[in-house]
């Protein structure tokens, strides 16, 4: 059970150098008692947002993502229950805890049956997970959304399989960066570009016309099995080393 995993070993501490990544498979949380727990801790506004989704599977994915986020954040605030947590949103819709005495930052992404949650302290963070889809016209998407430098690298991939992975590595890195910045579509996809994406530390270059900030970031990207690409963007801090711990909540 999800609740057993969370409360058996609560993540009660997170240091300034830590980023916790939680990976959830929604297929593992479909029993009535598990979903009832999630429903019991969502706010009224979250319930309304959930019901705005027409498809039952989309409603359930939202329910699990928000419920899991509340459980994880509440574990860091022992004086608060998951239902007590309150959120505020910036002008672009990025949520934050309020009040937030521990300076906790978080981000949530989902694709298919997988949900990815990133939690950091004292650092902005963004994350993205995408299910690989070979039926998409990735060349057309890259031409429209990517910087020309990224598009050119994509076209030089040796075969279609490599091109697909290259596309989704770039896509998730770019989405994680935009989400970490918290400015939504105000940051155009072609106003920055990534290089060294096959290395442990991909690098980003910001163009002159970009709305992205000039603060340093650290990035990571990896594939989960053969089906998903995951990426993380975390604000850099020269004084602290960064440790990323990935915890798969899959029973």
TrEMBL record:
Taxonomic superkingdom: Bacteria
A biological process from GO: lysine biosynthetic process via aminoadipic acid
Tagged with keyword Transmembrane helix: no
Alphabetical list of SUPFAM superfamilies matching this protein: 4'-phosphopantetheinyl transferase (SSF56214)
Residue ranges constituting the 4'-phosphopantetheinyl transferase N-terminal domain according to the UniProt record: 32-118
4'-phosphopantetheinyl transferase domain boundaries: 125-232
Transferase keyword on record: yes
Keyword annotations: Transferase
Any GO CC annotation of this UniProt entry: cytosol
Family statement drawn from the similarity comment of this UniProt entry: Belongs to the P-Pant transferase superfamily. Gsp/Sfp/HetI/AcpT family.
Name of the protein: Uncharacterized protein
